[in-house]
Every structure is written in C-alpha cells, then in structure tokens.
Design brief:
Blueprint lengths: L2 H27 L12 H26 L6 H22 L9 H26 L2
C-alpha cells in the first residue's frame, strides 16, 4: 500500500469536495459572486473552508509526493497521515459548528496540526536532500 499516494488522493478529494460544497451553497443562496461575511452563513463557511484548504493542500501534496519517492522512516509516513487528517479536521471545524465566530477545538487542532506536520515534512525533505 502506498500511503503517500493515498494521502495525496485524500487531499485532492478534500479540495474538490469543498469546491463542490461552495457551488452547492452558491446555488442554494442565489449568490453568483461573493457573499456575506457572516460567520453563520453556509456559503461563507463553505468559502472559508475551501479557501483555507487551497492555501495549504498544494504544498502539503508536493511535500508528501517528494517524500514518497523514496522509502521513509515511519515517523515521516505517520506525519503524512497526520497532515491529511488535520486538513480534514480543520475543514470540519469550519463547516460543522453553527458559527465561525467562536474558536472551536477541531479548528484549533486542525490548524496547529497543519503547521506542525507541515514544518516536519519540510524538515524531512531537507534532510532527504542532504543525505542523497
């Protein structure tokens, strides 16, 4: 089983599912462009979940792909899995609560986990580059 390809596939699925969710929210609200900046609005939450995902997923996917080209230690593989999980957790932390106005644990852990795993994947790739 290729964990790195599964992680990249799941990240891609997240991007397209969240993009589709924005389209569905637009259709339901009748907003063709933009939308209210209302932390309880389904459209606004959909836009923020998708926008934030688009900010981080491409780089995570590149890091995971580059690291997946050679055999990795288990901590790197688990970091790939954790990074993928954190992106899903963050999106859920935006979409599921009634409002984005208050912080919530899913969003916090998802964001913090994204930063930590992202930095760890960067470090792993730097070490890989110097050890070739």
């Amino acid at each position: 089983m290729s964990v790195y390809l599964i992680c990249i596939s799941l990240l891609g699925l997240l991007v397209f599912a969240l993009g589709f969710n924005v389209s569905m929210a637009r259709a339901k609200s009748g907003a063709v462009f933009g939308g209210d900046v209302d932390p309880t609005s389904r459209l606004y939450k959909a836009q923020r979940a998708h926008g934030n995902t688009i900010e981080y997923v491409p780089m995570l996917a590149i890091l995971i792909f580059a690291l997946g080209q050679v055999e990795q230690s288990s901590w790197v593989v688990w970091t790939m899995v954790a990074a993928t999980f954190c992106r899903y957790l963050f999106a859920a932390g935006i979409l599921l609560p009634a409002s984005m106005a208050k912080p919530n644990p899913m969003r916090f852990v998802g964001a913090l986990g994204t930063y930590v795993t992202g930095f760890l994947l960067v470090v792993a790739l730097i070490f890989q580059a110097f050890n070739r």
